[in-house]
Amino acid sequence: EIVLTQSPGTLSLSPGERATLSCRASQSVSSNYLAWYQQKPGQAPRLLIYGASSRATGIPDRFSGSGSGTDFTLTISRLEPEDFAVYYCQQYDNSRTFGQGTKVEIK
Amino acid sequence: EVQLVESGGGLVQPGGSLRLSCAASGFTFSSYWMNWVRQAPGKGLEWVANIKEDGSEKYYVDSVKGRFTISRDNAKNSLYLQMNSLRVEDTAVYYCARGGYTYAFWGQGTLVTVSS
Question: CA–CA separation, B4 vs A58, rounded Å?
Fold first, then answer.
């Protein structure tokens, strides 16, 4: 099983700031089969990024994904008020697993 | 518009059974892998099971193997999760989600509470 470890657990930032979220895999994720989701309280997750760096339909370009192998990053270039939420990475190379999440909160 | 609507959640005692359903609309159900993903209260997401378009392949997370069974009825555009021998740690919101690899469409979830 591929274990995904996200850091930090919580990120306290102000609107307009840049957010950098990390996802580290316990073994290499082939073909960059890595996705990112956003979840707000009481809502289902929303797909943001797939294939490590491709934005899903309708996702603003302030969201970007990068990385390969075991180290992946989600960057939000300038935080908007609606971006404060919990973010999860997910691998789909070997079965399916999610990271434990990073909460982006208002400072 | 793609819609996924889960039902069947509720309170059940440890060792009991429950069957969840997910009604799909707005797309050709028989053309997609389908999944169950759960989220314990205040916790992260956990993929539970998935099933191929025609039902010929099914996969499960280790913690539910032998207790949960995923199935589908393409004629009824419906996905199911039969949950037996339920444990306290199965308490979660259960989501159905469309897709073989990533999940662009999710239902609103149904809460399963396992407690005596």
Answer: 19
